[in-house]
Amino acid sequence: MKYTIESLTKVIVISFCAISATTFGLKPALAQSSLQLYGQIDEWVGARKWPGGQTAALLAGGGLSTSYWGLKGSENLGNGSSAIFALESFFQPQNGGYGSYPGDTFFSRNAYVGIESPYGTLTAGHLTTQLFISTLLFNPFVDSYVFSPMIQHTYLGLGTFPSYNTDQGSAGGFAWNNALQYSTPAFGGWSGAIMYGLGNAAGQNGAKKWSGEVTYSGSELSATAVYQYVNFNAQPGDLSSLVTGLKSQSIGQIGLSYDLKFVKFFGQYMYTCDTQQSGSWHVQTGQGGVAVPLGVGTLMASVAYSRDSGGLDQTRKSAAIGYDYPLSKRTDVYAAYLYDHFNKQSSGQTYGVGIRAKF
Asked: Which ranges of the sequence are coiled-coil (predicted)?
């Protein structure tokens, strides 16, 4: 017998419902639980030169999207409420490794449990940050760590991978451990959320991360505003390992998109304040982009510019162009190019073609 992803997922869902029903003495037809398997695989081939580095030919994962798989489920609790959970793991299809990079944890994308109700959703665990969601939703290359200028400016810097010399970028990562989040229901397109992450270390109760965001989603216009504060990266007291003497970081970001159907415009502005033991420095970042339907595919273009005041006194300029062509509802192929430049360092560039399959 030939099995497909859809048929296997149905078997998992049906089996989970039947087991739950049997456990609670219910008939399978009355079961109110579900379990879903989902994810995507993305691989690309091309070449990359980091700013200040040398060119390397690559066959790698995560060209337009980082590869991952996940399990999520819910159980109806009555009165419009449900218990929910999700376990999501990045992986590297080029070598079979787990995590989005060597050394990453297993369920690094999401790992949480919570309650969903008419009054909002409360989740606890390892949670994707509101800043990351805002960053990916309002640029045409979405969550691409390879080709999105805004993702590069926000998440590839400040002492993290890769190793070019910069004091720009976000601390705290794209997901927080030991985090609690409340998300409001949607009211006429408006929604909001707050998140708090603890350091979980004795004598370090002041180690924290917190953020808040407000989002509007309309048929044409969408917008968001998010604020994030952190005083540790992965564990209390570790910001100084990113930049000597760094104590805390605050980030404010706004994003807009406007969809005219024949072209969709994207814009973002981000202000970052890094506070050291003595003094501070500020980084301003802007991004503009478009997504244009072209044939059955989509042409994407984006530019980003960052400038710090104090610190290393750097500017960073990046520009990308790409084309995404769907082969089916679940599979697409793409080609893209990124130019990346810091002042006082040689320019970087990345180009390649890839394929992405969703399940």
From this structure: none
Tell me the CA distances in angstroms from 266 to 128, 252, 306, one per residue in order.
22, 17, 17
* pTM of the predicted model as reported, rounded to 2 decimal places: 0.89
CA dihedral 297, 136, 158, 343 (to 10 degrees): 40
Quick: pLDDT tens for 127-166. Answer: 999 999 999 999 999 999 999 999 999 999 987 778 788 9
Dihedral sign for Cα atoms in the order 51, 55, 56, 61 = positive
CA distance 118 to 122: 11
Q: Which two tokens stand for residue 58?
A: 């690559």
As a 3-state breakdown, the chain gives helix, strand, coil percent values, each rounded to 5, of 10, 55, 35
Q: Which residues, 6 or more positions from 327, have their beta carbon under 8 angstroms from its beta carbon?
A: 333
Output the six-digit token pair for 205.
């109760």
Burial of 79: CB neighbours in 10 Å, binned 0-12, 13-18, 19+: exposed
Query: Would you tell me how many other CB atoms lie within 10 Å of the CB of residue 23?
Result: 10
Q: What are 68's strand-pairing partners?
A: 40, 90
